[in-house]
Amino acid sequence: MQAVKYARASSVDEAVTLLRDGGDTARVLAGGTDVIVQARERRRHIELFVDIKHIPELTSLTHEGDGGLTVGAATPLYRIYGDTEVVRRFPALAESTHVIGGKAVQGRASLGGNLANASPAADSIPAMIVLAGVARVAGPGGAREVPVAEFCSGPGRNVLQPGEFITSIHFPPPAAGSGQAWERFIPRNEMDIAVVNAATYLAFDGDVVTEARFALGAVAATPLSVPAAAAAVIGRRLTDETIAAAAEAARQTATPISDMRGTVRQRKHLVGVLTEHVIRRAVERARA
Amino acid sequence: MTTTDDAILIRTTINGDPVTFLSSQRDSLLEALRERLNMTGAKEGCNNGNCGACSVMLDGRLVNSCLVLAAEVEGAHVDTIEGMADGETLHPLQQAFLEEAALQCGICTPGFLMSSRALLAENPTPTEEEVRFWLAGNLCRCTGYDKIVRAVLKAAGEMNEAR
Ligand SMILES: Cc1cc2nc3c(=O)[nH]c(=O)nc-3n(C[C@H](O)[C@H](O)[C@H](O)COP(=O)(O)OP(=O)(O)OC[C@H]3O[C@@H](n4cnc5c(N)ncnc54)[C@H](O)[C@@H]3O)c2cc1C
Ligand code: FES
Ligand code: FES
């Protein structure tokens, strides 16, 4: 491996200084499950790792008084899906984090790493998008917030400026009687990268959908928010027709490529199937 | 071992014993264990997080030591396969692996044992499906997994009886 120096930051300010002074070749080290492999395979030129796991707020998980949730960017995934309140109130987040890698990966991997790594197939990102997640960012210019939906700018690229890093991801409280679900298709039972993944969040007034968000992964250069699918169900009752319309809108939005994991045709088909699945499962949860 | 200018001193605890060693800042924990500390129980299979042969416990959590920097274990507690048996007495999982012939070449075995022990610590009565899901991060090219799963279930039963 090439990375030459390791620095352990004990505060947000210290990490910002280390990253700013380190310039292009300094990288945040959270769980290391992406970045250590990238350094070893020399896919990224790295001279300094800034370990953010020893900054207390980076590994916290807080349920707020209003029902919102704040997850420290470096909190390992097992603590997220292992939190009974997250499972009960943010099941889409629990579902997506429960299947990232195997147990040994989940002991280290983080939401901040999954997001910053900006893989088009990253499993937690569609869940974070439909939950209206907002990344809280610290940097030389102070703190700012970036909606998860606007965070990725291309495969492996994101909107962070030099010296900036994610400190936490905040989720507003899900509405009473809302439902949410996340799902992916992989040819194995576990330990694989998504051919397609999909998530939805739906809120209702009686039977009528008042709020809807959809997101897809592995079907474009970045994880995608799908407003057209939301438009197909908002203000309507969910019937076979409206569900099919949302699935069709999602298929139209997806611009997948063919690669070793799947073809354009298979991916488009899966987008429709998974969109229907997540709607039906979100409705079940909303009614439960 | 040559000392490069990026060498650092690391103070950690391995299998309950305080250990201080000199490591390159670019070394993984797996490299440090095997090459600096001569603890060759953890194996290198893939060196990228997929096979689980390098599994160790870091502060009580199962991790792939190929995906941990040696420098990260400063002040931490590491447990490896070398600490699993109690002197000459094998851990019930080790005994069950032998009795059920849950290994052939054995390169995956230390990882499976560490991973299985972590499972039973969290869930002492796993179903077969839970064992398979938990062990999905450990690959074995020889056994076809059935014997490994059987050994884990057997050890779980025995450990529960002994409780
Ligand atoms: C065997 C294996 C299986 C995997 N399976 C899956 C899978 O099923 N689904 C999936 O989505 N991913 C999978 N991954 C990829 C990886 O585990 C995830 O992307 C993980 O969430 C990355 O988190 P991390 O904390 O390990 O990130 P790191 O490797 O520490 O960092 C990843 C990148 O993000 C940057 N970064 C990290 N934290 C921050 C921050 N707070 N602010 C700014 N930048 C930051 C780093 O500098 C680096 O560029 C797998 C990886 C392995 C090795
Ligand atoms: S060598 Fe670490 S997971 Fe394969
Ligand atoms: S016994 Fe050979 S790889 Fe498992």
How do you describe this structure in short?
Chain A has 288 residues and is an alpha+beta fold.
Task: Give a written overview of the molecule.
The complex is a heterodimer of chains A (288) and B (163). Chain A is α+β, with helices and mostly antiparallel strands and 288 residues long. Chain A has eleven helices and 14 strands. Chain A folds into two domains: 5-171, Uridine Diphospho-n-acetylenolpyruvylglucosamine Reductase, domain 3; 179-287, CO dehydrogenase flavoprotein, C-terminal domain (Enolase-like, domain 1, 2-Layer Sandwich), CATH 3.30.390.50. In chain A, β6 (134-139) and β7 form a beta hairpin. Chain B folds into two domains: 7-83, Roll (Ubiquitin-like (UB roll)), CATH 3.10.20; 92-162, [2Fe-2S]-binding domain (DNA polymerase, domain 1, Orthogonal Bundle). Chain B is built from five helices and five strands; from the N terminus they run ββαβββαααα. Chain B has helices at 29-36, 92-99, 109-122, 128-134, 146-162; strands at residues 7-14, 17-24, 55-58, 61-64, 77-79. In chain B, strands 2-1-5-3-4 form a five-stranded mixed beta sheet, sandwiched between helices. In chain B, α2 crosses α5 (146-162). Chain B starts with 6 loop residues before the first strand and ends with a helix. The model of chain B has no long low-confidence stretch (mean pLDDT 95). The A-B interface holds A 1-6, 8, 29, 31-33, 36-37, 40-41, 49, 51, 76, 78, 101-105, 107-108, 189-191 and B 6, 8, 25-28, 47-50, 52, 55, 58, 61-64, 66-69, 71-72, 74, 115, 118-119, 133-138. Bound molecules: flavin-adenine dinucleotide (FAD) and FE2/S2 (inorganic) cluster (2 copies). One FE2/S2 (inorganic) cluster (FES) is lined by residues 103-108, 140-143 of chain B.
